[in-house]
Write a structure and sequence with these properties.
The chain is α/β, with parallel strands linked by helices and about 140 residues long. It has five helices and eight strands. The protein has one domain: Flavodoxin domain (Rossmann fold). Strands 1, 2, 3, 6, 7 and 8 form a six-stranded parallel sheet that branches. A two-stranded antiparallel ribbon has the order 4-5. α1 (about 15-25) packs across α5 (about 125-140). The longest helix has 15 residues, at about 15-25.
């Protein structure tokens, strides 16, 4: 099985999460590629079986609209019936961006894996938690 982990990271925290999630998925035999959102496009839908998307909240707990959201909106319609995981780190708020993102993914007909993995920046690193998330996603 092939998994694309596509992320945007302003501080490097979400990128670290992506790397640990990839490590966990690989321990379960998955072929995993880490892809910055800015280097990804609609063609990823043809190459992978599962998708993990990572983005921290920006502004008023919203997905980054400079790089991540333009990419995500481009592929969003193609996520129906696909297995999708969400993750991101945050420094403020209560996770509203993740709850709204989960609802958006479900509304497009994707098969959402668990709840999105969110880690508050002052509690990073959480490598074990991210690796276990990746292991479970690989088996999903």
């Amino acid at each position: 099985m092939r998994i694309a982990i596509i992320y945007w990271s302003s501080t490097g925290n979400t990128e670290m999460m992506a790397s640990s999630i990839a490590d966990g998925a690989r321990t379960k035999g998955a072929q995993v590629d880490l892809l910055p959102a800015v280097q990804s496009d609609y063609s990823v839908l043809e190459k992978y079986d599962k998708f993990a998307f990572g983005c921290p909240p920006m502004g008023d707990e919203e997905l980054d609209d400079s790089e991540f959201l333009p990419f995500y909106e481009q592929i969003e319609e193609g996520l129906a019936h696909r297995k999708v995981a969400l993750f991101g780190s945050y420094g403020w708020g209560d996770g509203l961006w993740m709850r709204e993102w989960q609802a958006r993914v479900k509304a497009k007909g994707a098969l959402l894996f668990e709840e999105g993995l969110i880690i508050q920046e002052d509690s990073l690193p959480k490598d074990d938690e991210c690796r276990l998330f990746g292991e479970r996603f690989a088996l999903f």
